[in-house]
Input
Amino acid sequence: MLRKYSHLICLATVVGLMLQIPPATARDAPTRKSVEYEIKAGFICKFVKFCTWPDASFANSDAPITVGILGFDPFQSIIDEAVEDLKIKGRSFQIRRYTPSDDYTSCHILFISAAEHNHIPAIMAKLADKPILTISESHNFCRQGGMINFHIVDNKVRFQINEKAARRTGIEISTRLLQIADVVDPTR
Amino acid sequence: MRSLKDIPIKRKIVLLITATTGLALIVACAAFTVYEFVTFRKVLRDDLLTLAEVIEPNCTAALDFDLPNEGTENLAALRLEPHIVAACIYRQDNNIFAAYAIRGTSPSFPLDPGPDGFRVGDDHLVVARPMILDGKRIGTLYLRSNFRGLRSRLAAYLATALVVLVTGCFIAFAIAARFQRIISAPVLNLARTAKEISNKKDYSLRAEKFGQDELGEFTDVFNHMITQIHKQDVELRQQQDDLERKVSERTEELSNSNELLKSEIAERRQAETALAAEKQRLAVTLRSIGDGVITTDTDGRIVLMNHAAETLTRWEQKDALNRPLADVLRLKNDSGATLDDIFLNTVLGGGRAIDLDRDETLRTRDDNERRIASSGAPIRDADGRIVGMVVTFRDITDRQMLDQERFKSSKLESVGILAGGIAHDFNNMLTAILGNISLVKRRFETDDNEFTRLAAAETATQRARALTEQLLTFAKGGAPMLNTMSIQELITESADFILSGSNVRVDYAIPTDLWPVRIDSGQMSQVVNNLVINAQQAMPAGGIITIEAENIARTRTDVFRGLPLDPSNYVRVSISDDGIGISEADQAMIFDPYFTTKPQGSGLGLATTFSILKNHRGHVTVVSERGKGTTFRFFLPAMPGAVLKPKTEIGVVVEGQGRILVMDDDEFIRDVSAEMLTDLGYSADMASDGKTAIQLYQDALAAETPYLAVILDLIIPGGMGGKDVIKQLLAIDPNVKSIVSSGYSHDPVTANFQSYGFSRVLPKPFDIQELSDVLNEILTDHRVS
Output
C-alpha cells in the first residue's frame, strides 16, 4: 500500500517544500520575493536571540534594538510588520532606513542592501569595528568583513556567518546559531 | 527420604553451617544486585537526562529557524550512544520536526511527547525535555533508550553472585566438615554411653568429658544423673520387693473379701428371688380373689385394679389408671343418691374403714347395673401415715337372690314347725276317726244308705288327712321317704288324673333316657298335682299344659346360676301354661304359706311344693309374664344309672290271725286299733307306754305265745318312744317284726325306718285297709323268710 502511494508521498513532499518559498502567482498578493523577505525579516529578528551585544551598546536594559536598512529597502513594510509588538530579550525593535550618506553607525543591526555590494569595503571601514551586526545578501560579503550573509541553497534561505568578525566588534554569536549556519573564516 | 530430624548430628551440623552460609550469601548477593539495579537505573536516568540536556541546545536554533535538516543532523549524533533507540523533536503543535532512529529500525513515535521528564515504559526509558529559547518554549526533545545496558549489567552481577555463592558455600562446607567434630564428638559419645548403659543396665559406666563448655557441663550432669539413677534403681528394687509383698498380702485380703461378697450376693439374689416370688404370689392372689380390689393413692386416683374389679366395672386397668375412683366405681344407693365421694371422704379424709350397706348399685362402664357390697379401708405405711386406700367389692346380685330364697325358706320352716305340732295331734284324732269309720263301714253293704254316709265321712277324713299331710310337709325334720324311681309315670298319672274330663290338654316332652330320681312318691305326687292344678286354674277357658323333663348334668352351671342347688346331676321338670300369668309382685310371694289369689285357695299348695322340693334337696322356680303364661320348673337330684325296684301292688283287705302288740299313748288309737285288729282276725294287746310294751313282749315270749308283730307309736310324750322301744325289743328278740307308726310321717325315723330296726312304716291316720296291707306284707315276708 505504501508502495502504491509512494509517488504521491514524494509529490506531496515536493509541494510542501515548494510552499516554503511558494512561486509567485498573478493572483496572490505576496510575490515570491516578498515571501523570501518575510523569511529574511524573521531570520534577522531571530538572530537577536543568539547574539549578545556589549552592554554599552544599549542605553539601558529596556532600550530597543535598532535595525537599520542601508540603501535600497527590499523589505518595504514587511519588516515593519514583523517587528511590530515583537520583543526579544525584553527589547522591542525599531527600524531605520539609511542612505549611504546617512550616519548609519548608531544601530545594532545593519542590513546592507545588495545594491551597495560595490561599496562594502567602504561601508565596513566606516563602521570601524563598532558592535553592529552586519547583514547582507551579496556574494563574498563575509569575506569582505561582513558578519552574516543570506544566500539561497536548494531553494531555501540559508546564511553564512563570519564569527570572527562579530567577535572582533564584541558581539558574541551563540554556537547554537553557528551550528546551523555556514561558518566562513575569511582568514583561511 | 529421611526427615531432617533423623539425619546424623554430624551431617546436621555441616548442613546447617553450609545452608546458613549459602543463605547469607544469597541474601547479600540479592541485596547487592537489587541495590545495583536501583542505582543503575538512577545512573541510566541521569545519563539520559544529561544527553537530552546536551542535545537540546544544538537543536534549538534549527528548530527556531525551521531547518529540519540541521535538526536531523544534530540528532544523528546520537548514534554514538547505542542505547538510544529513537529520538525526535516535537514542535509546539506536536508535529515532529526531526527524528532519529537507531540503524535498522523505523521507529514510531507517540502523537505527543507526553509529560516532561524521565519515565519508564514497558521495555524502554523515555526522557522528554522542553526546548526553551529566549524564555519561551518552542518544542520538545524526545529520547528513548532501551534496557540493554541494564540487562547486560544485571547478567554480570548475577554471574558474580553465583561464583561468590558457590565458593562461599564450598568454603563453609569445608570448614564445617572439619570442625563439626568439636560439637558432635561429645554428643555422640554421650549418646553411645547412654545407649550402653541402657543396654547393659550397667550404671557404673561414665561418659568421657571433652571440655569445659556446655557439653562438658552436660556430660557432668549426665554422669551425676547416672549416679543418682543407680542409687534410685537400688532403692526402687527394694521398694518393688516391698510392694510385691504388700500386693500379695492385699490380693489375699481382696480374695477373702471377694468370697464374702460373693456369698452376700448369693444371699441377696436368693432374697430377691424370694421377693419376686412373693410379688408373683401377691399378684396371683390378687388376681385369684373373687372380689374386686381397687387401690388408690392419697388423692383417690386409681393405682391398681385386679381382674375381678375389671370384670365387675367393665373398666380395664390401663384405662382406669390415675382416674378418680368415682369415675370407675360409680355407686348409687337405693334411694338414688350417688356415693361417689363416700370412700374419698370417709377413708382418705377421715382415715376410717367403711363397710357399706348392701344396697348399692354399681353402674358399669357399659351402663349396666350390678348390685354390689363394698368396703374401703385406708392403706397405712409403717409409720401409720395414710398412703392410699383399698376398696373391695363383690357382686351380690346373685347372692341377694339367694338370700331372698333363704328368707322364704325360713318363713316356711317356722310355719312348718307350728303346723307339725298341730298335725301330730290331728293325725292321732284322724286315726281314731278314720279307723272307726272304716270299721263301721265294713258292717254295711255298699248300696246301704249308711255305707254311703260313712264313705262320705271317710272321704272328708281323707281330705283332712291330705291337709294334715301338707301341713306336716313344712314340719322340721319332715324328711321324705325316698325311693329311687322314674318320675315319668308319677307325672303322667297325676296330670292325667287331674285333667281327665277337663278342657285342658297336656303335652308331654319327656325323654325315655330320663335319669331316675330319689323321691318320696307321695310328696312328689303332691308337687305335680299342685302345679298342674295351678296351671289348669290359670286357664279357665281351657288350653294346653306343656310338661317337659330333661337331664341337667352337674357341669351345667349356667342352669344352676343363682339357685340354691349343690353342684350335682339333676332332672328338671317344667310345667308351662299359656294362661293369665302372675304379676311380678305376686311372683315374690306365691311360695309363701297361706298366700293365694284364688277365692277357694288354701295358700298352701305352692308353699308345700316349695318345701317338698327343698326337702328333696331340689328347688322350684317360676317364670311368668302377665297375659302370656307361667312356667314352673323344679329340680330333683338325679341318680344316673340306678336300678329301679319293681312296683309293689296294693292288695285287698287280707284277714289273718295271731297276736299283735300295739303301743300308743292315745287311748282312741289304742281302742280303734284293737277293734280293727280283732276285726281282721288278730288278737291284739295294747300298751300305752314303752315300759308296758316291752314287759308284754317279754311275757309273751316267755309264755311261748310271741307276738307276730308290734305296732309302735314313734313319739310317746314323757316316755320311751318307738325308737327306744325297738332297740330293747331287738335286744330281747332279734327277729322282732315291728311297724313304726307316727303322726309325724316326715320324721327322719319313719323316712329311714330300716336303719332303726323297724320292718315297716304305718303313717297315721290309717284305715283298716292300710293296716291289713302292712300286716299282710310283714307276715308274708316272715313266712317267706
